[in-house]
Amino acid sequence: MDILFLLIPLSVVLVFFILGGLWWAIHQGQFEDVEAEGQRILRHD
């Protein structure tokens, strides 16, 4: 039972890090043109 006092706050912190990383990626334009990247991989430039 004592381990829950450690694991629950750590999981909440992990969720905040994941959400912060997702927010950063969205605002940096990582998901702007997803289709072009898929087509670029298929072409042999």
What's this model, at a glance?
With 45 residues, this protein is mostly helical.
Structure characterization notes:
- The protein is mostly helical and 45 residues long.
- It is built from 2 helices and no strands.
- The model has no long low-confidence stretch (mean pLDDT 90).
Question: What kind of sheet is the major sheet?
Answer: none
Q: What share of residues are in beta strands?
A: under 5%
Radius of gyration over alpha carbons?
A: 18 Å
Number of strands: 0
Low-confidence stretches: none
Helix content range:
over 70%
Mean pLDDT: 90
Question: What is the molecular shape?
Answer: elongated
**Structural class label:** mainly alpha
Summarize the helices and strands and which ones pair or pack.
Layout: H1 4-27, H2 34-42
What keyword list fits this structure?
mainly alpha, 45 residues
